[in-house]
Amino acid sequence: QVQLVESGGGLVQPGGSLRLSCAASGSIFRFYTLGWYRQAPGKERELVATLTSGGTTNYVDSVKGRFTISRDNAKNTGYLQMNSLNPEDTAVYYCNLQKYSNVYWGQGTQVTVSS
């Protein structure tokens, strides 16, 4: 069973930055698409960014130019660099790995953007 553990969340002021990490167990990491999702209070979980095993990225429009998804396959770790954060980015952020019908989720990390 693959386990994903997110870290790096916290409280940050508007305009600030955070880097989230997603550490994966096992040996499948490099073969799967890495995804970051978020869920704000009272809202559905939404896709933030994805990065395929081949290096193709995709971002939701609201984070383009501000967030960067990356991965280090040697460390079985994915990242989400978040810059120019605003209060609308406040949410629980989840990482996932997906390939075909196989999907694994982390437990989530809280990001709060507030002055």
Describe how the helices and strands are arranged.
Blueprint: E1 4-7, E2 10-12, E3 18-24, E4 33-39, E5 46-51, E6 57-59, E7 67-72, E8 77-82, E9 91-99, E10 102-105, E11 109-113
Parallel strand pairs: 2-11
Antiparallel strand pairs: 1-3, 3-8, 4-5, 4-9, 5-6, 7-8, 9-10, 9-11
The SS-based structural class is mainly beta
Alpha-carbon distance between the two ends:
40 Å
The major β-sheet equals: 7 strands, mixed
Helix content: under 10%
Roughly what fraction of the amino acids lie in strands? over 45%
Uncertain parts: none
- Note the total helix count: 0
Order of helices and strands: EEEEEEEEEEE
Number of strands: 11
Q: Could you tell me the mean pLDDT?
A: 97
- The Cα radius of gyration reads 13 Å
State the shape: globular
Task: Supply the key terms.
0% helix, mainly beta, 115 residues
Characterization of the model:
The chain is an all-beta fold and 115 residues long. The chain has strands at 4-7, 10-12, 18-24, 33-39, 46-51, 57-59, 67-72, 77-82, 91-99, 102-105, 109-113. The strands form 2 sheets. Strands 2, 4, 5, 6, 9, 10 and 11 form a 7-stranded mixed β-sheet that branches. Strand 9 and strand 10 (102-105) form a beta hairpin. It is globular. The N and C termini lie far apart (40 Å). The mean pLDDT is 97.
Brief sketch in words of this structure:
With 115 residues, the chain is mainly beta. Helices cover 0% and strands 52% of the residues. The strands form two sheets. Strands 2, 4, 5, 6, 9, 10 and 11 form a seven-stranded mixed beta sheet that branches.
